[in-house]
Amino acid sequence: MAEWSKWKTFTPGLQGSVVRGSPEHNVLMVEESMENVMSVVRERNEAYKVLEHGESLAHPGRVVRNDVGLPDYKNPSQHYKPRESSTHYKRLHLNYNRWMDKHLVRYEEVLRRGYKQHVLLVEVEKQRLESLYGLEGEDLEGYVRDRMEHGCNKLQQYLNMTAELNNYAK
Questions:
Q1: What per-residue confidence (pLDDT) applies to 113?
Q2: Which residues pair with 62 in a beta bridge?
Q3: Quick one: which of 13, 76, 118, 146 could link to 151 by a disulfide (CB 3.0–4.6 Å)?
Q4: What values do phi and psi take at 64, rounded to 5?
Q5: Cα–Cα distance between 160 and 83 in angstroms, integer?
């Protein structure tokens, strides 16, 4: 950091003096070396934090319930004021209410119905491919696996986030 501030105070004096090589080249080299120094300092701080506290500087997000009660991944952010006293935050973020739980059951039911319908469509498509093109074995199984992964993503994501929320509650 001290090198960075020294370089910043030294650059105005560089413009009038004659330096071996072009001044632009020297400035670029100094900027590059400062970036390297800053990255080394960041890595050192990260390693120190992990070694001393067992946690990294990167703040992991967590799963929370959004306004309508669905699980949602949220990145942490810093606030100048506490959330409870910030009227701006209160206006933008509604609180999750327990009365929304009955709607969540219905939402999960809709997701499960969509998944079952997707499974049936994949089975019909599999039979059609077998009869039309005579596909069987690994090609057909790979196609079916890809189609199944593509269709059940929403339900699986919802169930994983709900399980993570339940783990937080314990």
A1: 92
A2: 74
A3: 118
A4: -130, 170
A5: 28
Q: Which amino acid is at 23?
A: P
Type of residue found at 121: L
Mean pLDDT by 10 residues, the chain (170 residues): 58 53 76 88 85 71 80 75 76 69 85 90 87 79 79 78 72
pTM of the model: 0.45
d(CA 118, CA 50): 45
Other Cβ atoms within 10 Å of 46 Cβ, number: 13
Secondary-structure breakdown of the chain: helix, strand, coil percentages, each rounded to the nearest 5:
70, 5, 25
Classify residue 71 by burial, with Cβ atoms within 10 Å: 0-12, 13-18, 19+.
buried
Segments making up each domain of the chain, as ranges? 2-53, 60-170
Can you read off the two tokens belonging to residue 35?
């970036």
Helix (H) or strand (E) holding 84: none
Buried b (16+ CB within 10 A) or exposed e, 81-112: eeeeeeeeeeeeeeeeeeeeeeebeeeeeebe
